[in-house]
Write a structure and sequence with these properties.
Number of strands: 0
Helix content: 55-70%
Structural class: mainly alpha
Oligomer: single chain
Distance between the termini: 19 Å
Order of helices and strands: HHH
Low-confidence stretches: none
Shape: rod-shaped
Mean pLDDT: 79
Number of domains: 1
Largest sheet: none
Number of helices: 3
Strand content: under 5%
Length: 125
């Protein structure tokens, strides 16, 4: 899997976990506020709902981001740097001018095709 796709998965996984934890915390504070231990019950409830929605929306945003990345890779004939996503189709050397890493254009194209097909197929299941 290209490092760019791996970083995308990691960021969305962290976002989902953080949103779930924050939603749990807000709903716990809401429960305490209904017992009059702490003030502002409406605030804690609204924040809990917002964080819960973020945790549910994160996978949907991830699928859309991967679909956008796939269309971008396809429009570049799959010649994107697997490390930074730079379009290396017109580069004379196999070195990426953006991040400086060496790459094989044909191998990178196969990696992008396989990674985006696999991740979109997994997300659809």
């Amino acid at each position: 899997m290209p490092p760019l796709v791996r970083r995308l998965h990691t960021r969305f996984a962290r976002l989902s976990v953080a949103a779930i934890l924050l939603a749990t915390l807000c709903f716990s504070l809401f429960a305490l506020s209904t017992l009059r231990v702490i003030p502002y019950p409406t605030l804690w409830f609204v924040l809990g709902v917002v964080f819960a929605l973020v945790s549910f929306a994160s996978p949907i945003i991830q699928v859309r981001s991967l679909a956008h990345l796939r269309s971008r890779a396809r429009s570049a004939n799959w010649h994107l740097c697997p490390h930074c996503g730079y379009n290396v189709q017109a580069c004379a050397t196999p070195r990426c001018p953006e991040c400086g890493r060496d790459g094989d254009p044909e191998r990178d194209a196969r990696v992008w095709q396989a990674a985006t097909d696999l991740t979109l197929r997994k997300s659809a299941d």
